[in-house]
Amino acid sequence: MRRSSVARCTSPAMSCAKCRRWQSKPIRASAPFQIWHLDLTVIRLIDGSRVFVQAVIDNFSRYVLAARTTATYGGSSTKTLLLEAIGKATAMGCSLTPTVMVDSGSENLNGETDGLVDTGIIKRVVAQIVASQVTGSTSFPGNQLHHL
């Protein structure tokens, strides 16, 4: 089983004992569709333009519930992606309200996604990724494209 870790403290040094203890606590789902990760990465093309790859991944199975590549990003794109993931999970028999782990990017914290949280379709947790975990299992799979 893969693990994801988040820091629950914003201490820049992560030097206090409390922060080190929090740093080592993994996030683990005990069943599919309980916890999802939503992330976005930017890919620079040869011509200098950028595309944005965004995906929703199930924590338990690492199954990609929804993914899209767009020329822009924002709240409406994130909302559409989440609705697509919810539709796919529902078709697969999920009746849970997923907890979606996101970073504090503007694509995740806006009126569009707030509406999904307010209606109870999803629960949202804003997490700060531990710097030592960025290349680990919490990192977005698209980031590996930078190394090709």
Task: List the keywords.
148 residues, Nucleotidyltransferase, domain 5, five-stranded mixed β-sheet, three-stranded antiparallel β-sheet, 3 helices, disordered C terminus
H/E element sequence: EHEEEEHEHEE
The CATH top-level class label = Alpha Beta
Average the pLDDT over all residues and give the rounded result: 80
Strand arrangement, largest sheet?
5-4-3-6-7
What is the second-level CATH architecture?
2-Layer Sandwich
Distance between the termini: 26 Å
User: Structural class, from helix and strand content?
Assistant: alpha/beta
What's the helical proportion of residues?
Answer: 10-25%
- The CATH superfamily name is Ribonuclease H-like superfamily/Ribonuclease H
Shape: globular
Number of strands: 8
How would a textbook summarize the main sheet? 5 strands, mixed
Which fold name corresponds to the CATH topology?
Nucleotidyltransferase, domain 5
Q: Provide the gyration radius in Å.
A: 16 Å
| Beta-strand content bin | 25-35%
Q: Give the uncertain stretches in residue-range form.
A: 1-8, 132-139, 142-148
Number of helical segments? Answer: 3
How many structural domains can be distinguished in the coordinates?
1
User: So what's the oligomer here?
Assistant: single chain
